Structure formats: structure tokens, C-alpha cells
TrEMBL record, chain B:
Topology within the bilayer: Lipid-anchor
Record organism: Cohnella lubricantis
GO molecular function: peptide transmembrane transporter activity
Name used for this protein in its record: Peptide ABC transporter substrate-binding protein
A single GO BP: peptide transport
Record's signal peptide: 1-20
Localization, UniProt: Cell membrane
Top-level taxon of origin: Bacteria
Family: Belongs to the bacterial solute-binding protein 5 family.
One Pfam family it belongs to: SBP_bac_5
Keyword line: Peptide transport, Protein transport, Signal, Transport
From TrEMBL, chain C:
Natural source organism: Cohnella lubricantis
Family: Belongs to the binding-protein-dependent transport system permease family.
Keyword match Hydrolase: no
A GO BP annotation: transmembrane transport
Record keywords, A-Z: Cell membrane, Membrane, Transmembrane, Transmembrane helix, Transport
Membrane spanning stretches: 9-27, 100-122, 129-152, 172-188, 230-252, 272-298
Keyword Transmembrane helix: yes
All residue ranges annotated as the ABC transmembrane type-1 domain in the record: 94-295
Protein name: ABC transporter permease
Length: 309, 546, 312
């Protein structure tokens, strides 16, 4: 570096700064933050193993049914309820269908149902809950009442009606799961926001003139990410289970397609005799949940580095 | 703060423990017969009962004019003997003098007259859903009609049932009905104690139920359990060996199986429970002394919607009917000893002196032939002007293995005919509504006998029948049924009904028969004297448990 | 205070009214009626049955009649179970669900919070891992699978417990386990997650710096703040457990209200559907009220809200 004493000030050395409005924008740019989050996430081995598992699962859901020598729907009534073998890698079900192919076909449906329902819950729940918690007072009371009433409407009636009005399909089931699914999320978010609303940094931001929406989405919601992510990682399995419960009542995905939930459900009558029919989908379901959970934890830690000791 | 929390927790715990403390243990042991009903009987009023669960309990509580033995023969019950007139339209029942109600009152012919007219009473509320079981009686249907119907008869004395004295009951019929005697053991025709007049809710509580059967009700915890104990006023109480009958209401097949295996149940499975199809194979090996499989009078079939393309075409219907392997379905999918069905009337229905199916086998009605089925399909599609098989949906309801059968059938059609059939599961009442209003392509159906005569099957597909949800209208068929109604000659009746069945199945292929039902049940080895009739109705009144 | 509770009551009644209306028309929109059955009831008999239960009237008239009865707290009689009033069915069967539910709630809160706190205290240590594995298993196994498996293992194979029924205190173990597994996992994760945040907060560090004992810090400071989301969850959980035990009830043969609810929908037992729906809604609202009260108890800052409400 040059010696500063010899430095002469010239006009070229100065640059006119663009005008920055007072207040709030002092907060750092979001791009480096995301990069930061990503960096921290990548170094978290546990979280990354979850990600790797989920990616593998996604890949298997796509190619799994193709690599098996059997398709997922053809019956082989001479070879029903067979244990895993070289021919049928994961055994067969009560109609002699290949469980390996069915498992990956089931993965497609279960994952789409779980993720779609979780996404809808996330969007509706966070917005609705955020507004409830932030607005407070009358608005909160009213919105809370509406969600309470919606939550009390018998879910079964809604599902049956939806399936009568619309063609039964995976999307109808997702819709049915979402009708009331988001409410729980909204209550969690509301509780969190109420608690955070009066904290110093929020008051500070408000006194600096931040708008309501900005307050909500820039400050309050990011700080409730922990509980949101935890709730979310649990929404995926609960959506998958709800779908299985609908199958339990005969309202799930239509055969010959199957989800993990329907596969577990169908195997229940004979699982003591043919345990593999339940073990494979149940184990995969457990592992998927585990992966979502460690990934969720990692994500939360990455967002909130101070948790790392 | 910490104290508050602790005290709340302590309070909750104490409440919980206190609440949990109440309740009694139900023991199994000698003389106690434990059975699972799966659900609470909706009504134990013989006039209002309409399901097999209620019937099991009613069998213990009541006795009609006649009873059934294990072979399905009618044997004396409250009636000791009976005379039938030459034109077979008047029945005179002579009642035994020692039959008593559980409160000690004698059971008289007036009680039967009262009970039957009560079933038919147009002002009975709620109305009896099975009143039509009494329509064989003279003027019964017209009396039962709503008052604004021009054919309505308002005078109950014109109904053909009359107590000539305390122990003689005379019944006049509309038509000679050879199976009328077998109906007199049916629950709708059980006697009712006249205390029902003053208390319409009498049949919903153990305390107000006065019954005349081998047992009386000791307690009824709705949705939970029913206990029956022997009726000390029963005329044949010496034949009743059980000390107690306990009914559970557990609606889960695998739980029921475990309860049986751990000795909590003396009986499991059909008709009020279910043995999972998956377990039958194993049970045949390890529990062969407990496992029983018995044909029951019912047919499992698919209904074609005859009013809608493509199943308005006979050849397409024939192709689908012929292209499946029923034996394989019975052996590998349902596994419960069902019998492949090629007709509509099941083998356990009686005909003229022999079984109907023995005299008129179903083998001539349809045959399985894939090559011919392919041909017929091609021909049918051409007739309909279709280039390929249109998308059709096979509609089923949820529960009890319907999905497996449907999937197996769809797979056979895919392999044998190269056609795709979509399977759609619907909620039970939505399904029924759609089937009744002909809003389907192919739908699952099942029918079981109300009485031991082919007519219980044949007359459901007349053009005016409320159960005809095929859109099947055939004047020749209607005429045959009408002729059979009027005939008192059994041989002629059977012939007419055989012709009708040929029109329904062979000529029109309006239905796709799959199999004849069977009942799969398990009985502990210490239980003796349990009887099951042709319908699969269980009679435990003379059973004993060591 | 009176005005506060009066206002609450009015809003509860309005909610119930809206719910009753929505459910009524929803349920009437579904195909089928109480008398649809495999063996068709003759049309004249069906007409009489419909008339007896008032189902032949125009739908708005049926609705007004129902509301009128409801105002007099008359839930009517079941259309399926002859001569049984809806209120007697609810009181009889809810007893079982309530007993089961109370146990499940107690177990979930104690075990869930315990696991969560321990996991947070020993963050990234073996205990944390074990606690979270338990939590993950809890959410990963559908309750009907867990119920079937424990029933098979402990009821059938080992015969430690009865397979079905709810007669002695030991009969509660398996169903409670099946009901509590998911809430335990949920609460454990929620507690751990908020506890981790709280443990890093300034005031905890201050407390530590002041030389307070670790256990005292945890219980007196961290737990009180860390438990807030759990309190939010206790309301819905109570409602969920009390109203959502149908699968567990079915597997263990428990004659609870959940079983009746599913059956009432499939039977189109209109009066029973309405009765149970409204009953469930009341439970839900009570549970929400409980949440608010607990909230005030745990976090005095939020408690201000109700006091503010009282004075306004």
C-alpha cells in the first residue's frame, strides 16, 4: 500500500453514493445470507446424509419401477404372498404383485401427497397465522374464530363430499388433506408471533418505520422458523398417514395404484404371517421421516447459527 | 409457578386413576359363551330389526312358531304342530301350552297376532323395514300401505292372521307360498309381548325387554357389551346348558382373531365377524379343528349397467363374463372355500325335494372360454361402432376384500382381452346411491337369501323390483315370475324359475356371477351343540361350553 | 371480568351456530340417507320412515326445526340406533374416550417435555441422539401400525395385557401408548427446539454468569420460556386425542365416541353427526380456552391480553 501521506485527493477518488432511505434497509443483503445458510448446511454431515437419502429416494421413485423385472400391477396368482427372493426382490403381495415396483410407485404417490400437502399447509398456515398473530385484537379474534370453525367441521364429511363432487384422484386427496391441514400450522405461527411481537428488535424495527408486511415477513416469520420447520417436517408424515387413514376407510388412492399408507394398511390383516409386506413400506416411511427430520434440524441450525455451540 | 404445575399434574393423574379404577373383568369359563358382534344391534325389536347382528341376539331372546335344525329343516318351536289346507293357502298353528314369557306370562296366539299386525301397522313408528316379509299373508300389503293409497285397507281384522283361541293361530295367505313355513322362524315374525303397546322404547333397554326365547337379557351396555342369561320360564329350559352368553362389539378382524386365540372368544368370524382371507391358509394348518367353512346362501357378482354403452351390448357383456377364471379367484384371492358361480341361485337353496342347483346345474348357463370371449368382444365392438374398448370403471365399495377381487378381475381382463378397466372405490352409501340410479358401468353386488327358496333371488330382477339396479326389463321374465308366484306346484315353480334364471344369465348375461358365498368361522373345541343354518345364521341356544 | 367472559360466551355461541349451519348443509349434500341399504326398503315404507324423522320436509325447514330443538339443548334421537337419544350415546361413549385421552395427554406432556429438555441440555451428545431417535420413531410409525404391533406382541404373544377391551387399569397401557406416541415425539421436538433457542438467550447466559445452578436455570428460566410452543400445542393436542382416537379405539375394541362418529357418517345418522360434531367443537373450544389460560399462567406478558380485554 502507498503511503497515505503522499495521497492527494482527486475528484475521481470520490463516488457519489446512491440515496438510501432512512431506516430498515440497513439489514444485510439476502444473497450472502442464503449463501451462508447453504454453506453451513453443507458442512452439517447429519443433515447432508438426510438430503442424500431423500435424493436417492427421489431417484428410486423415478427409476425403481423400471429396474424391476416386474411391473407394479400385473397379478401372479400362483405366487402370492411370497417372501423376498432373487425373482421378486422384496417378495409379493396377496395378488402376487411385485412389492419392489409397488414400493417405488408408492413412493411417488406418498411423496407427492406429503410434500404437496405440506407446501399448502406452509403457505396458508404461515400467512394466516402470521397475520393473526401480528394484527392482534379484533382481526385476530375474528380470524381465529374462522379457523376454529373450519377445524371443527367434520373432516370425514368434507372428504366424502369432495370425492363425490370431484373425480377421486391423488389431487382430490391432497385437496381434502389441505382443507383443514393448515390450521394447526397457523396456530403455531400465531403463538410464536404473539410472543415475539413485543421483543426489543421488533419494537426497534417498528420505530424505524418498517411496514406491517415487512415486519411480518422480514423479522417475525424468519424468527419463528424453528417451530415452523419442526411442524413442517411433521406435516409430511401426518399427510402420508392421513392418506393411509382415508385408505383405511376406502377413500384413498384408487387401485391398482398404491401409496405406502395403503400398502401398510393392506398388509395389516396378514402381517404376522407375511411381515415383509409391512416391513418394507414401514421401514422406508420411517427412514424418510428420519431424513426429513435431520434435514429440518440442519436447516434450522443453518438459519440460526447461534445455536451451534 | 412450579407448584401450580405440579398440582395440576397431580390432579390430572388422580382423576385419571380414579376414572380408570371402575370397570369389571369379563371372565371366560365353563358355561360361558363369548362371541363378537362387531357393532351394537341397532334395534332388538323384532319388527324393526334388519341386520344379521340384531338377528344373532334375537335368536337367543326369542322363539317363533318354528325353529330350524342344522340341516335347515323347519322344526316345531312355540307351535307344536300345524295343519295346511288343501289349497295350501290356510295354515293353522297349534301352540304349546307351556310356552311362557320371561316374566311368567303365557305366550298365546294373541301375542303372535298382535306382533304381526304391529309389523304391518301403517302407523307404527318408525315403520318396519322388513314388513314385506309378511306380504304373503292375505291383505297384509294393502293394510301396510299408507292411508292415502287407494288400495289401502284400514281394517286390521281383514288381515289374514287371527287367533282362534289362546293356543290356535290361523293364517290365510294371498298365494300358495310353499316356503311360508320356513319364514315363520324369521325374526320379523317373532312374537312381541303386549307391554310394547304402552312403551314404544321397550326394546332399547335390558330392563324393559320381555322375551320368550331360551335366554333373557341381563344387561345391555350400548356399543360395549350385551349379556344374556337363561330364561327360567322357557319351556325347554332343560335343553339350555349355557350359564351366560356374552357379546363383545369389537369392529376389527385381526383383534377378533387374537381374542379368539387368547381364549377371550368362544366363537369368531362369520356371520357377525370376519376371518381375514390372508390368515385362512395358515389356520387350515394349525387350527384345523377350530376352523369351519360352510357354504351360505348368497351370490357375489357384478352388475352390468344395461342402459349404457358399452354394456348395453350382449356380446361385450358375454366377453367379460367368459374371460375370467373363477376357480383361480376362489383358490388364490378369496381363499375362504367359496364356490365358483356360473348362475345366480346358490347351491344351498332348496328346490323340489332336492337342492335347486342339483336339479338345474349352473354349468349350462355360462362357460369360461378366452378364445371365444375375444371373438365376442371384437364382434360386440363392431356392432357398437367402436374402434377400441372405451374407458370403463368398475365401481366397488370399501371393505371386506372387494378390492382384491376387483383387481384380480381387472388383471384377467387386461391379460385375456387386452382391455383396461379402471377400479373406483366408493363410500358405501354413495356407492349404493350410484348403483340404484344406474350411475355406473360395472358395479359390485351381492345378494343373500331371505328365505329358503330360489324366488328370493329370482324376483329381484323383475322390472318393478326395487332392487333391480341393472336396468333389466324383460316381459318374459316378469311373466315367468308371476306364474311362479301363483303356482302351488313345486315342480312347476322350479321349472319356471329355472327358465327365468336362463333368461337373466344365459340369454342376457345381465350379471357377471363370480362366486357363491361361504361362511368362515372358528369355534373353540370346548364348545358343543352350536348350529349354523343354510343362510349362515348361528343358533347357540342349545350349545354348551366345557 | 364479567363482560370479558360474557363476550367469550357470545362468540362461542356464534361459532357453534355457524358450525351447525355449515355441517348441516354439508351433510345433507352427501348422497344417501339413513335408510339406504343393500336390500332396498319398499318405497312406501321408506316414505313413512322419512316422514317419521322429518326428512320429507324441505331442507331449510328441517334446518329450522333442528335449530329450534338445538336452542332447547335437544340433540334429538339417533336415526340408526332405535330410541336412543344422541345425548345418551355421547355421554356413554365419551366416558371411554375421556379416560383414555386424559392418560394419553398426561403421558405425552410428561414424557415429551422430559425428552425434549434432556435432549436440549445434552445437545449433540449421545442422549440427545437417543431422545431424538425415540421422537422420530414416534412420528414415523403410523398409530394403527404401532397399535397392531404392540397388541400382537404384548397382548397376543406375551399375553401381558388383554388384547381388547377397557376393563381393568392395565388395559389402558397399550391404547395409551398408541395414542401418546405421536404427541410425545412432537412435544419432545418442539421443546428441544425452543429450549435450544432459549438456552442461548442473554438472560440465561446472565443467569449462568450469576452462578445459578444448571438445573435451577433450566427449570426456573429456560423451561418456562421454552414451554410456550408446547402450551400452544397442548390445546389442539387435547382436542386431537379426544376426538381422533377412532383408529386406536377400533383396534383395541374400545366403545369410544370416535367409533360412533365414523359410524354415524357412514350410516348418515344425521342427528348423531350433528350432535357429535357440536360436542367435538365444544371440546375444541374448551381446549383453546385452556391454551389461553395456560399461556397466561406461563407467560405473564401475554396474560395482560385477557386483563386488557376485561377492562375494555
Amino acid at each position: 500500500m502507498k503511503d497515505s501521506r503522499t495521497l492527494t485527493l482527486t475528484k475521481e477518488m470520490f463516488k457519489r453514493l446512491s440515496f438510501r432511505p432512512p431506516g430498515e434497509t440497513i439489514a444485510g443483503d439476502s444473497v450472502p445470507m442464503w449463501r451462508d445458510v447453504l454453506r453451513r448446511l453443507v458442512t452439517n454431515k447429519l443433515a447432508m446424509s438426510g438430503v442424500v437419502f431423500l435424493v436417492l429416494l427421489g431417484v428410486m421413485a423415478i427409476i425403481g419401477p423400471m429396474i424391476s423385472p416386474h411391473d407394479y400391477f400385473t397379478n401372479n396368482l400362483d405366487r402370492t404372498n411370497e417372501p423376498p427372493s432373487a425373482d421378486y426382490w422384496f417378495g409379493t403381495d396377496n395378488l402376487g404383485r411385485d412389492l419392489f415396483s409397488r414400493l417405488w410407485m408408492g413412493a411417488r404417490i406418498s411423496l407427492v401427497v406429503g410434500l404437496a400437502a405440506a407446501a399448502i399447509d406452509l403457505i396458508f398456515g404461515v400467512i394466516y397465522g402470521g397475520i393473526m398473530g401480528y394484527a392482534g385484537g379484533r382481526t385476530d379474534e375474528m380470524m381465529n374464530k374462522v379457523s376454529e370453525i373450519l377445524y371443527s367441521i367434520p373432516y370425514l364429511l368434507v372428504v366424502i363430499l369432495l370425492l363425490v363432487v370431484m373425480e377421486p384422484s391423488m389431487w382430490t386427496i391432497i385437496l381434502a388433506l389441505s382443507v383443514t391441514g393448515w390450521i394447526n400450522m397457523s396456530w403455531i405461527v400465531r403463538g410464536q408471533i404473539k410472543q415475539l411481537k413485543n421483543q426489543e428488535y421488533v419494537l426497534a424495527a417498528r420505530s424505524m418505520g418498517a411496514s406491517g408486511a415487512r415486519m411480518l415477513f422480514k423479522h417475525l416469520i424468519p424468527n419463528t422458523l424453528g417451530p415452523i420447520i419442526v411442524t413442517l417436517t411433521l406435516t409430511v408424515p401426518s399427510a402420508i398417514f392421513s392418506e393411509a387413514f382415508l385408505s383405511f376407510l376406502g377413500l384413498g388412492v384408487q387401485s391398482p395404484a398404491a401409496s405406502w399408507g395403503t400398502m401398510i394398511n393392506d398388509s395389516l390383516a396378514g402381517w404376522t404371517l407375511f411381515p415383509w409386506q409391512m416391513m418394507f413400506p414401514a421401514a422406508l416411511l420411517c427412514l424418510t421421516m428420519l431424513a426429513f427430520n435431520v434435514f429440518g434440524d440442519g436447516l434450522r441450525d443453518a438459519f440460526d447459527p447461534k445455536l451451534k455451540k | 409457578m412450579r407448584k401450580t404445575w405440579l398440582s395440576i399434574l397431580a390432579l390430572l393423574l388422580v382423576t385419571g386413576v380414579l376414572l380408570a379404577g371402575c370397570g369389571t373383568k369379563n371372565a371366560s369359563g365353563p358355561g360361558i359363551f363369548n362371541m363378537n358382534l362387531s357393532s351394537d344391534p341397532p334395534s332388538l325389536d323384532p319388527a324393526l330389526a334388519q341386520d344379521s347382528v340384531s338377528f344373532v341376539v334375537l335368536t337367543g331372546l326369542y322363539e317363533g312358531l318354528t325353529r330350524k335344525d342344522a340341516e335347515g329343516n323347519t322344526i316345531p318351536g312355540v307351535a307344536e304342530k300345524w295343519d295346511i289346507s288343501g289349497d295350501k293357502k290356510t295354515y293353522t298353528f297349534h301352540l304349546r301350552h307351556d310356552a311362557k314369557w320371561s316374566n311368567g306370562d303365557p305366550v298365546t296366539a294373541h301375542d303372535f297376532e298382535y306382533a304381526w299386525k304391529r309389523v304391518l301397522d301403517p302407523n307404527l313408528n318408525p315403520a318396519s323395514p322388513y314388513a314385506y316379509q309378511l306380504y304373503y299373508i292375505k291383505n297384509a300389503q294393502n293394510y301396510n300401505m299408507a292411508a292415502d293409497n287407494p288400495d289401502h285397507i284400514s281394517d286390521p281384522n281383514q288381515v289374514g292372521v287371527k287367533a282362534l283361541d289362546d293356543y290356535t293361530l290361523q293364517v290365510e295367505l294371498e298365494n300358495p307360498t310353499p316356503y311360508f313355513l320356513s319364514i315363520t322362524s324369521f325374526w320379523t315374525l317373532f312374537p312381541v309381548h303386549q307391554s310394547a303397546k304402552s312403551n314404544p322404547a321397550w326394546a332399547s333397554k335390558a330392563e324393559t325387554m320381555i322375551t320368550n326365547g331360551a335366554f333373557k337379557m341381563a344387561s345391555w351396555k350400548h356399543g360395549n357389551a350385551i349379556d344374556l342369561v337363561p330364561n327360567e320360564n322357557y319351556y325347554a329350559k332343560g335343553e339350555v346348558k349355557l350359564k351366560k352368553v356374552h357379546f363383545y362389539m369389537v369392529n376389527n378382524a385381526s383383534t377378533e382373531m387374537m381374542m379368539f386365540h387368547t381364549g377371550q372368544l368362544s366363537f369368531a368370524g362369520f356371520p357377525t365377524g370376519e376371518i381375514p382371507a390372508e390368515q385362512i391358509g395358515k389356520l387350515k394348518e394349525i387350527n384345523k379343528d377350530e376352523l369351519h367353512i360352510q357354504p351360505t346362501a348368497g351370490t357375489y357378482y357384478y352388475a352390468f349397467n344395461l342402459t349404457k354403452q358399452p354394456f348395453d351390448n350382449l356380446n361385450i357383456r358375454k366377453a367379460l363374463t367368459m374371460a375370467i377364471d373363477r376357480q383361480l379367484i376362489v383358490d388364490k384371492v378369496t381363499k375362504g372355500g367359496q364356490v365358483p358361480a356360473y348362475g345366480f341361485v346358490p347351491p344351498s337353496i332348496q328346490g323340489d325335494g332336492q337342492m335347486f342347483r342339483e336339479q338345474y346345474p349352473d354349468t349350462g348357463l355360462l362357460s369360461e372360454d378366452i378364445a371365444q370371449a375375444k371373438q365376442l368382444l371384437a364382434q360386440g365392438l363392431k356392432e357398437e361402432g367402436l374402434a377400441s374398448f372405451p374407458p370403463v370403471t368398475l365401481t366397488i365399495n370399501d371393505g371386506a376384500g372387494h378390492k382384491q377381487v376387483a383387481e384380480a378381475l381387472a388383471d384377467m381382463w387386461r391379460k385375456n382381452l387386452g382391455i383396461e378397466v379402471q377400479i373406483q372405490t366408493q363410500e358405501w352409501k354413495v356407492f349404493l346411491q350410484n348403483r340404484t340410479s344406474l350411475n355406473y358401468d360395472i358395479a359390485r353386488a351381492g345378494w343373500s337369501a331371505d328365505y329358503n327358496d330360489p324366488m328370493t333371488f329370482i324376483d329381484m330382477y323383475t322390472s318393478t323390483s326395487g332392487n333391480n339396479d341393472l336396468g333389466f326389463k324383460n316381459p318374459q321374465y316378469d311373466a315367468l315370475v308371476k306364474q311362479a308366484y301363483a303356482s302351488s306346484d313345486q315342480q312347476q315353480r322350479m321349472q319356471l324359475m329355472d327358465q327365468a334364471e336362463q333368461i337373466l344369465v344365459k340369454d342376457n348375461m345381465a350379471i357377471l356371477p363370480v362366486y357363491y358365498y361361504s361362511g368362515v368361522y372358528m369355534v373353540q373345541q370346548n364348545v358343543q351343540g352350536l348350529e349354523m343354518d343354510y343362510q349362515g345364521q348361528i343358533d347357540f341356544t342349545r350349545a354348551s361350553v366345557q | 371480568m364479567v363482560r370479558y367472559w360474557g363476550g367469550k360466551l357470545v362468540s362461542v355461541i356464534i361459532s357453534l351456530f355457524v358450525l351447525a349451519t355449515a355441517t348441516f348443509f354439508l351433510m345433507k349434500a352427501i348422497p344417501g340417507d339413513p335408510f339406504t341399504s343393500e336390500k332396498a326398503v319398499p318405497p312406501e315404507v321408506k316414505a313413512k320412515l322419512m316422514a317419521f324423522y322429518g326428512l320429507d320436509k324441505p331442507i331449510w325447514e328441517q334446518y329450522l326445526i333442528y335449530l329450534k330443538k338445538l336452542i332447547h339443548l335437544d340433540l334429538g334421537t339417533s336415526m340408526k340406533s332405535q330410541y336412543q337419544t344422541v345425548s345418551s350415546i355421547i355421554t356413554d361413549s365419551f366416558g371411554y374416550s375421556l379416560r383414555l385421552g386424559i392418560f394419553a395427554i398426561i403421558v405425552s406432556v410428561i414424557v415429551g417435555v422430559g425428552l425434549g429438555v434432556v435432549a436440549a441440555m445434552y445437545h449433540r451428545k449421545a442422549i440427545d441422539g437417543i431422545a431424538m431417535v425415540i421422537a422420530v420413531l414416534g412420528v414415523s410409525i403410523p398409530n394403527f401400525v404401532l397399535a397392531s404391533m404392540t397388541q400382537y406382541l404384548f397382548g397376543y404373544k406375551l399375553q401381558w395385557f388383554q388384547v381388547a377391551g377397557l376393563n381393568g387399569p392395565f388395559d389402558y397401557v397399550l391404547p395409551v401408548l398408541a395414542l401418546a406416541a405421536l404427541p410425545i415425539a412432537y412435544i419432545a421436538r418442539l421443546t428441544r427446539s425452543t429450549m435450544l433457542e432459549v438456552l442461548n438467550a442473554e438472560y440465561i447466559k446472565t443467569a449462568k454468569a450469576k452462578g445459578l445452578k444448571r438445573s435451577v436455570t433450566i427449570v426456573r428460566h429456560a423451561l418456562r420460556n421454552g414451554i410456550l410452543p408446547v402450551v400452544t400445542y397442548v390445546g389442539p393436542m387435547t382436542a386431537n386425542i379426544l376426538t381422533g382416537s377412532v383408529v386406536v379405539e377400533r383396534i383395541f375394541g374400545i366403545p369410544g365416541l370416535g367409533k360412533y362418529f365414523v359410524d354415524s357418517v357412514s350410516n348418515r345418522d344425521y342427528t348423531l353427526i350433528m350432535g357429535i360434531t357440536l360436542f367435538y367443537a365444544v371440546i375444541l373450544m374448551l381446549a383453546r380456552l385452556l391454551t389461553d389460560l395456560l399461556y397466561g399462567l406461563v407467560d405473564p406478558r401475554i396474560g395482560l391480553r385477557s386483563r386488557k380485554g376485561a377492562s375494555s
